[in-house]
Amino acid sequence: MADSPEAIQKSLRLYKFIGLVLFAGTGLTVAVATIPALDVGKHGFDIADMVLGLLIASVKASLVAAIFMHLNHEKRLIYWLFGFGIVAAICLLGLTALAETDPIHYDGFQIGVPGSDVIKHFPHN
Fold it and tell me: Whole-model pTM?
């Protein structure tokens, strides 16, 4: 942390610079999304536009975490915990993707009025 007036001024300059970089990143994101000349990939929104937008957002989030949240001065354990969280999130997304590609079909569920002899089966896809 800053103890002297010079160190405080240096920190303020850094925060102002990062704020300008974040503002410019937001402007770049809006420009890429709205200006056709900056459209990457095919015309309109596609996977390349999504990757570029996520890349810009990741850089901005990393700057906020490192500078404004002071994570650049933390111990190594914090980075391991963040890394574990990211790996866990990727694993959960992977499991969701696997469930979408190989759904479970079960024909055992039945619909009917209790006490009625009419039972309808769910149609399966």
Answer: 0.57
Q: Model confidence over 103-124: pLDDT tens digits?
A: 777 655 556 555 556 555 555 5
- Please tell me the distance from the alpha carbon of residue 3 to that of residue 9, in angstroms, as a whole number: 10
- Give the separation between CA 32 and CA 6, rounded to whole angstroms: 39
Q: What is the 3-state secondary structure (H, E, C) of the chain?
A: CCCCHHHHHHHHHHHHHHHHHHHHHHHHHHHHHHCHHHCCCCCCCCHHHHHHHHHHHHHHHHHHHHHHCCHHHCCHHHHHHHHHHHHHHHHHHHHHHHHHHCCCCCCCCEEECCCCCCEEECCCC
Give the count of beta carbons closer than 10 Å to the beta carbon of residue 41. Answer: 13
